[in-house]
Specification:
Layout lengths: L1 H69 L6 H12 L4 E8 L2 E5 L8 E2 L5 E2 L5 E8 L2 E11 L2 E6 L14 E6 L2 E8 L15 E5 L3 E7 L5 E8 H19 L3 H13 L3 H12 L2 E10 L5 E11 L5 E2 L1 H10 L3 H16 L2 H4 L4 E5 L2 H4 L4 H12 L6 E6 L6 H13 L3 E7 L6 H5 L5 E4 L1 H5 L10 H12 L2 E4 L5 H9 L4 E2 L10 H21 L1
Helix pairs in contact: 1-2, 1-3, 1-4, 3-4, 7-10
Length: about 525
């Protein structure tokens, strides 16, 4: 009897010893999951607030310039030129112009020939800004725009630009609201304006309202706030599923499952872990898109484009995984992999073709990497190439830190590397700032090339970008050229180089080398015939 009691007690103690760690792990998982979702919601709200503030900054700077320089003749040719310069140099402003009688009587998008009706003002702030939330224009009838007016000038913006984040999380609700008007200026998903009251006098707040974990952030410069709301049901459903599966299994293997649950709480996002695995397994590879000389049609270089093929055969789009790699501090490792692959793919080629170049994209974090220049030089040595064979492309966003940008671009150029500003016209750079940097190339974004020969609002922007490049003494590379008409247009206006499907789709480097072999043979035959 005593033995039986001992066995029963032992079994109870064993079950308790197994069950308690599992119960503790599940409760910890729920708590950490709640904290993680709260942090995620706050990160989204801060990102939306940053975008909203940057939009406000660009509008204020543009209006201040127009009021200062052109208030007396707001629709003069000089004023319209200034409007277009503001438009090109802004990442959030779609157009800017002069307002009279609820119409944009002249603007960067329509010049002085066509007035754009705006309709009545939805509300005005105590600081004198007038807001129109849902404005439609004949040039884009399927879209609604927001128009912000101050001192008889107004800027048109896409309503969704400030909330154009968290695209991979469609269940997350986002909004920008005025602190003086309850109707959201821009929103996605369910938004309760009453959430603003939870902010009180604080700068930030995060709370649960029963259905959502909500984060609210107040602007430090404007009368606005950003909201992000993540539904609780996703966290609850996941926690419930984990508990139902793991508790019975844990009775047989408690320790292992406890560790697994704790590990699950620390791995909320699958993609960052997959990227780390991809780097370890070397699943990232490169394709190369040729760059041509528009005057001769010769291939003079190629841009290295990063690709990811998972072991399942699935191709992950670079727009997704590169952003995740940046966000989670892995982009420096990604750049190292790019340099390794360029060295492997082009080994010996650049020694035989010294006038050919390879362009690679670098990230802002690479500029902060103390070993970056050494790694680039090591890659060159492995390729048997010279610094002029490599063009380092950085987006406007990568140049936002003035001190680091000037120091790094200067060091790279002193080492013989060429530096290109990529996707120009889509970021934040001012002309005076670009003049302070040591650059060689300006790449015109494909969105402006696509508008050539159309009636799109951006159809005239490319000519202003070309003028800017000339003023700065930069060589130009047009991206996304798909038609001969686009190539002819660019060549006639002095653009030196281009890339796009008209000349060649992204391909393996073996195909690049094969084409270059044929190109040299044809040139040799032409030279001997001449």
């Amino acid at each position: 009897m005593r033995k039986s009691a001992t066995v029963v007690l032992t079994l109870l103690l064993a079950m308790t010893a197994i069950s308690i760690p599992i119960w503790f792990a599940i409760s910890q998982s729920e708590r950490q999951g709640f904290n993680a979702v709260s942090a995620q919601a706050m990160a989204y709200a801060r990102d939306v607030m940053l975008r909203s503030d940057e939009t406000g900054d660009q509008i204020m700077a543009g209006v201040t310039r127009l009021v200062r320089d052109h208030a007396a003749a707001p629709c003069s040719a000089a004023s319209i030129d200034a409007m277009r310069e503001i438009d090109v140099g802004s990442s959030y402003i779609q157009a800017i112009g002069h307002v009279r009688n609820d119409s944009l009587v002249c603007s960067s998008i329509a010049g002085g020939e066509t007035a754009l009706p705006l309709g009545p003002v939805d509300y005005r702030t105590t600081r004198g800004a007038a807001f129109r939330r849902d404005v439609r224009f004949a040039f884009a009838p399927q879209r609604t725009f927001a128009v912000i007016e101050m001192k008889q000038f107004a800027a048109i913006i896409h309503k969704n630009l400030p909330i154009d984040t968290a695209k991979s999380e469609p269940h997350v609700s986002l909004a920008v609201l005025s602190l003086q008007n309850p109707v959201p200026a821009s929103e996605r998903g369910y938004i309760d304006p009453a959430w603003l009251q939870r902010l009180g006098g604080a700068g930030e707040a995060v709370f649960e309202d029963g259905r959502y974990i909500v984060a609210v952030v107040r602007s430090q410069r404007y009368l606005t706030a950003a909201i992000a709301a993540v539904p609780l049901r996703f966290l609850r459903d996941r926690s419930s599923d984990v508990a139902q599966r793991l508790v019975p299994i844990g009775l047989a293997a408690g320790v292992l499952l406890t560790l697994a649950i704790l590990h699950l709480a620390h791995t909320q996002m699958a993609l960052p872990a997959a990227i780390r695995t991809a780097l370890r397994r070397k699943e990232l590879f490169l394709e190369y898109q040729p760059v041509v000389d528009l005057r001769t049609g010769r291939w003079v270089g190629a841009e290295a484009l990063l690709r990811w093929r998972r072991t399942t055969g699935e191709i992950v789009q670079p727009d997704l995984f590169i952003a995740i790699a940046e966000e989670h501090g892995m982009i420096v490792r990604v750049t190292r992999r790019v340099l390794e692959k360029v060295s492997e793919d082009t080994a010996g080629f650049l020694r035989q073709h010294p006038h050919f170049h390879i362009a690679i994209n670098v990230a802002p974090a690479d500029f902060h990497d103390a070993d970056f220049l050494d790694r680039v030089n090591a890659a060159l040595h492995a390729m048997g190439a010279s610094p002029h064979n490599l063009i380092l492309e950085v987006t406007e966003r990568g140049l936002l830190d003035p001190d680091v940008a000037r120091s790094t671009t200067g060091s790279l150029r002193r080492s013989g590397f060429a530096v290109a500003i990529d996707d120009f016209g889509t970021g934040y750079s001012s002309l005076s700032y670009l003049e302070s940097l040591e650059l060689d190339y300006l790449k015109i974004d494909r969105s402006f090339i696509e508008a050539i020969g159309t009636e799109a609002p951006t159809s005239q922007v490319v000519q202003h970008i070309i003028a800017i490049a000339r003023d700065l003494g930069l060589r130009m590379i047009a991206e996304g050229v798909e038609t001969q008409a686009q190539a002819d247009f660019l060549r006639a206006r002095g653009v030196q180089y281009a890339q796009g499907w008209l000349f060649g789709r992204p391909m393996s480097f073996a195909e690049i080398a094969e084409h270059m072999g044929r190109q040299y043979q044809e040139e040799a035959l032409a030279a001997s015939a001449g």
